[in-house]
Design brief:
Length: 300
């Protein structure tokens, strides 16, 4: 599938951008519903989203720049070619790290709320659980871009690369096989792509994000009065890295330690930290003694 819907001179509309913006708009709409239930102005959410997107892109790019990817590009390369760090438009959207995006978006959100004297924890609760649905939609962009697929597999639902369009470099690509998107593909290259399938990890990720979005939405609807303000963020920081850890077994890794790749170790660290914070926050807190600090406001 062509990742570009149409182009007009230097401007090109891509499917990735459509899915990204659609996911972001849905996150804002759902967050606005929570804000309305809580009696907050919903107008801040659109501006906050712009801040979070900018911070997320900066954080995601820095994550990619200072780490080594499967293609070998990392800080050693960008130190030699520093202008490539800001080269977002040509390959930049294929060079972003999620945990950097999460950190950058979180910092931007906190700064916006601090500047406008908003309740930081409450606004994070409006947004964080709904990010899962936005991410599930955004994963369709990974499918169109032919990226974030996993290791080779012969499963019936394996993802097969369309060699006519650019893609993430397949693992263990033979030197005689041309890279996807190359003009004048040989018959040998076309046969290789047709015969080799890969784990559709972007689909697994989308399914996990959608299911966890539904689980958290039901949890807040039915038991929000038992949750403490800020729990929406920490629940997100539990279920998302749990999914990333599981998906790590399907992704090729640049290196492993005790059988686990770098993303899995980061996921375990965030998971452990989030669970510890949740336990500590609830240790001496009573939802029936301090109802004003609960997430009952999100229930309407």
């Amino acid at each position: 599938m062509n990742p570009v819907i149409f182009d007009f001179g230097p401007f090109a509309l891509s499917w990735y951008g459509v899915f990204l913006v659609s996911g972001a708009l849905i996150v804002v709409w759902l967050a606005a519903r929570y804000a309305s239930n809580a009696g907050e102005r919903t107008g801040h959410l659109s501006a906050l989203l712009a801040w979070a997107l900018i911070g997320g892109v900066i954080g995601a790019r820095l994550d990619y720049v200072f780490t080594t990817s499967l293609s070998g590009i990392g800080w050693a390369y960008y130190r030699a070619y520093p202008l490539e760090i800001i080269n977002i438009w040509q390959g930049g959207f294929h060079g972003l790290g999620f945990y950097g995006a999460l950190a950058g978006g979180l910092v931007a959100t906190v700064l916006y709320c601090w500047r406008h004297h908003l309740d930081i924890l409450l606004y994070l609760d409006f947004i964080a659980p709904n990010l899962l649905l936005g991410q599930a939609i955004g994963r369709m962009g990974n499918y169109v871009n032919q990226e974030l697929y996993g290791t080779a597999t012969s499963l019936p639902w394996a993802f097969h690369i369309d060699p006519n369009y650019p893609c993430q470099v397949p693992p263990a690509l033979p030197p005689t096989i041309q890279l996807c998107g190359t003009s004048g593909l040989t018959a040998e290259s076309r046969v290789w792509y047709a015969e080799h399938g890969f784990q559709p990890t972007f689909a697994y990720a989308a399914a996990w994000d959608f299911i966890m979005f539904y689980v958290l939405a039901i949890l807040i609807e039915r038991s929000g009065h038992r949750l403490r303000k800020g729990d929406g963020l920490w629940l997100y920081c539990i279920v998302y890295p749990l999914g990333r850890f599981w998906l790590g077994f399907f992704w090729p890794q640049p290196w492993t330690w005790i059988g686990l790749g770098p993303t899995q170790w980061v996921s375990l660290g965030l998971l452990g930290l989030s669970m510890t914070i949740m336990i500590m926050r609830h240790w001496h807190w009573s939802w029936y003694a301090q109802p004003a600090e609960s997430l009952a406001v999100l229930q309407g």
